[in-house]
Specification:
With 329 residues, the chain is an alpha+beta fold. The chain contains four helices and 16 strands. The protein has one domain: putative glycoside hydrolase family protein from bacillus halodurans (Beta-galactosidase, Chain A, domain 5), CATH 2.70.98.
């Protein structure tokens, strides 16, 4: 497993450029990601972030928080991966899917998935909210009562996961004394939620016959950006997560998204670089686009890469937090 979320600028498998005013810049793939470095798409709010694989039968989300590291004032340390979230859907792995689209909308800071399987339209949305300090993952199905899934959380440092009342969480302490914790709250519309164990005997949550599933994720450490307290916060990481999640639960997905988009676009929309958007086909994949670029320069692609770099910086660091580094966040 990689130990850090990295935002890789030029090695994503599929990139596409949108020409409409509603979606000027976006990355697009026509299949799920299988490689963390070159294919998974990143989201982030400057403090927490994730790499989204967007698998059809199993969703894998690797997440991180920007203060989790193994060093201290005297020793050089390394940033650490925080954990992984898995959503395993109750569907036939051999059943084909069509019209798959995996899009990272740079204009809104919104990751969207859509595909069709077994006569159903499946849609997913992912975003990392800076105003509300949570990551939001939404899964919806066109046929009511057809969403069945198993939700599992995993600590990258081996602590056991606890499950209770629709929540999954873990907490631990690194060798340098840094405390950390992550929590996922599961909201189910039109179905049931129960605690069970998976084939490895680990505690998980089961969703049955749902119309929609919403996951809210928060991760935190006891780091504080002040030497007066020896870089330690008085608030426990679990309490930080509970505070953020309780507030986020009051809003609902659409309001959380609206608050996120308003915050994000206030930064992203500061700059517009127009290098003839009409050069690009909105359905063209990056493989084809990069191959074409080898034969003839495409300035509009260069504009997209520039804006993607701005998206990554906005996602990696915000005012008052830690600076972005070569590993992203």
């Amino acid at each position: 497993m990689h130990t850090k979320i990295k935002y890789v600028l030029l090695t994503l498998l599929i990139i596409c450029f949108g020409t409409s005013q509603a979606q000027r810049y976006y990355l697009l793939d026509n299949k799920p990601a299988t490689d963390w470095m070159t294919e998974a798409y990143p989201i982030g709010n400057g403090r927490i972030g994730a790499m989204i694989f967007a698998g059809v039968n199993q969703e894998h989300i690797q997440f991180n928080e920007n203060s989790l590291w193994t060093g201290d004032e005297q020793e050089t340390g390394a940033y650490q991966a925080f954990g992984d979230l898995f959503v395993r859907f109750d569907s036939d792995v051999n059943k084909s899917f069509t019209a798959y689209s995996r899009k990272l909308n740079l204009d809104k800071g919104l990751h969207e998935i859509a595909y069709q399987q077994d006569g159903q339209q499946i849609n997913r949305r992912y975003f990392a909210s800076q105003p509300d300090q949570v990551m939001v993952f939404e899964y919806a199905n066109s046929k009511k009562g057809k969403l069945n899934a198993q939700i599992a959380l995993q600590d990258a440092h081996g602590q056991a996961v606890q499950v209770e009342d629709g929540h999954l969480w873990f907490q631990g302490t690194l060798d340098n004394g840094m405390r950390y914790a992550a929590q996922v709250r599961v909201q189910v519309v039109g179905g049931s939620l129960s605690k069970t164990t998976d084939e490895k005997g680990q505690a998980v949550l089961n969703v049955k016959s749902a119309d929609r599933i919403v996951l809210l994720l928060s991760a935190a450490t006891d780091y504080a950006n002040t030497r007066a307290t020896k870089w330690k916060s008085a608030e426990e990481p679990m309490k930080v997560n509970e505070r953020y999640l309780q507030q986020a639960e009051k809003y609902g997905v659409n309001k959380l998204l609206a608050r996120h988009v308003a915050d994000y676009t206030a930064l992203f929309n500061r700059v517009e670089l127009d290098l003839d958007h009409s050069q690009l086909d909105a359905k063209q994949t990056t493989k084809a686009l990069l191959e074409a670029y080898k034969k003839q320069p495409i300035p509009a692609l260069e504009a997209l890469v520039y804006q993607y770099g701005r998206y990554l910086l906005i996602s990696s660091s915000r005012k008052g937090g830690l600076p972005a580094n070569l590993q992203g966040l």
